[in-house]
Design a protein that fits this description.
CATH architecture of the largest domain: 3-Layer(aba) Sandwich
Bound molecules: zinc ion
Largest sheet: 6 strands, mixed
Strand order of the largest sheet: 1-2-6-3-7-17
Helix content: 25-40%
Distance between the termini: 36 Å
Shape: globular
CATH superfamily of the largest domain: Zn peptidases
Number of domains: 2
CATH topology of the largest domain: Aminopeptidase
């Protein structure tokens, strides 16, 4: 799929200074805003640099806005003229993940160079997600500089630790809650672009907007042993018992489920689906739910939308020598739960599935978020904006398989939309996001900027209802 072939209406907003916007993104990438779980390791001065850039580069926003900070997290409020309209919020996180030392030499441009070269803006954060942070600022600045007045209050909210614990988004949400603010919609990153073939619709491209986030849970599985000489493993070893337990968990087929959101996405796709077996199955989605679920669970691209996934990720080292039995051992399995499976239900299930010599402990996590409605003003507006720039993409409500900041705003908003409007090549994204050679093409950056300006116009100006 050539993603750039999907672009349309490229001549909109000819007076927007795209070069300056790219330079601003480049400057933002040069701020090494790496977040760490242990905040003592986080370099606060890098966040201050980024805030300084924001203050300098966006004079119209600064003149019109009320700014608040919560630690390093930022909330910018641009007050609208019509107080009967609920505010809209545009969110992106300031932080980025670290660059693994051993991979630095694989980067064509230094990870924090912000180099603009060969049609790309290079560096950590160019895809995740400083382009969206800068995009929101550029769009608001552009509209304000032209004398545009927002009817709906616009919030720009930039958390500091989405990649670790999301405390910044939680703090901003607590503040809004205390002020009695209720938001019309929140627009956050994520989403996916897929070849329609996956859904049996080869003539189209599908854009999945995340309406909820799957749950997240880390569970520790522990086996105990005093160790000893490996010639007498009468009860097996702690490693053997742990391996058996991991195998029992991983090989167990759990039922999975199709959420209402996923079923709705199939209703939208139905007119485009031409291939069996889905073309027959989606004629009556409710009646064929079981068979559709089986189809999803058997597909490497779709299974995560319907299954609670389990990924064994960590294990303590075993014995120091081949003839020594290991002592206590522990493995961590990372879960991503579909709505319906919860931390509590998983814990109960594994207690009954596994033998007594395996302890199961919940470490951390959060249940699946609430699903936003696809018949909301926010969703309709976003699809309208996206469709102008990507007219051949059919946008559907879907699920986020990974967590983001969005769910933290549930207490103040029933419509959280997760979609990154900068459509970049899937291979570039796969390599770059949390990986090496993270880069965003200039054309994707410009096209995404147009989507954001259009979305602000559609949803936040006078005619907005
Ligand atoms: Zn991100």
């Amino acid at each position: 799929m050539d993603i750039y072939q999907l672009y349309a209406s490229r001549h909109d907003y000819p007076d927007l200074d795209y070069d300056k916007a790219a330079e601003h993104l480049s400057q933002a990438i040069r701020c090494r805003t790496v977040s760490h779980v242990d905040t003592a390791e986080t370099d606060q001065s890098q966040f201050e640099r980024l805030h300084q850039l924001i203050r300098e580069n966006y004079p119209f926003i600064m003149k019109n806005a009320a700014c608040k900070t919560f630690g390093n997290s930022l909330l910018i409020e641009l007050s609208g003229s019509d107080k009967t309209l609920k505010p809209a919020m545009f969110i992106a996180h300031q932080d980025v993940v670290p660059v693994i030392e051993s991979t630095v030499r694989k980067w064509i441009h230094d990870p924090f160079s912000g180099d603009i070269s060969a049609g790309f803006i290079w560096g950590r954060g160019s895809l995740d997600i400083k382009e969206m942070l800068i995009g929101f600022l550029e769009a608001a600045e552009y509209l304000l500089s032209k004398g545009t007045k927002f009817a709906r209050t616009v919030y720009l909210a930039f958390g500091e630790d989405e990649e670790t614990v999301g405390s910044g988004a939680k703090a901003i949400c607590r503040y809004l809650l205390s002020e009695g603010v209720e938001l019309e919609f929140v627009w956050d990153e994520s989403g996916k672009i897929r070849d329609g073939k996956t859904y049996g619709a080869p003539a189209i491209t599908v854009g999945e907007i995340g309406m909820y986030e799957k749950g997240y849970a880390d569970f520790a599985f522990r086996t105990r042993s005093t160790g000893g000489h490996s010639s007498l493993p009468f009860y097996g070893t702690s490693l053997g018992n742990l391996a058996t337990a991991i195998n029992a968990v991983v090989s167990e087929k759990r039922p999975g489920s199709l959420s209402e959101t996923i079923k709705e996405s199939l209703r939208i796709l139905q007119p485009f689906i031409t291939e069996e077996p889905l073309v027959s199955l989606v004629r009556n989605i409710d009646e064929n739910e079981e068979a559709i679920l089986e189809y999803f669970l058997a597909d490497p691209e779709l299974f995560a939308l319907a299954a609670t996934t389990k990924a064994p990720t960590m294990i303590t080292p075993g014995a120091p020598a081949a003839n020594v039995m290991p002592g206590d051992m522990e493995a961590v399995i990372n879960y991503r739960m579909v709505p319906g499976d919860t931390i509590e239900s998983l814990q109960q299930h594994y207690r009954s599935l596994l033998p007594d010599n395996v302890e199961v402990t919940f470490l951390r996590g959060v249940n699946a978020s609430r699903a936003s409605r696809h018949d909301s003003f926010g969703f309709r507006s976003l699809v309208r904006a996206l469709n102008r720039y990507y007219p051949d993409v059919v946008f559907i409500p879907s699920a986020n398989t990974a967590a983001t900041d969005g769910h933290n705003y549930e207490p103040v908003c029933s419509c959280v939309l997760r979609f990154t409007p900068f459509l970049e090549d899937n291979a570039i994204k796969a390599e770059g996001i949390h990986g090496t050679n993270e880069r965003l093409s200039i054309r994707a950056f410009q096209q995404g900027l147009r989507v954001i300006v259009r979305m602000m116009e559609i949803s936040c100006l006078k005619q907005a209802k």
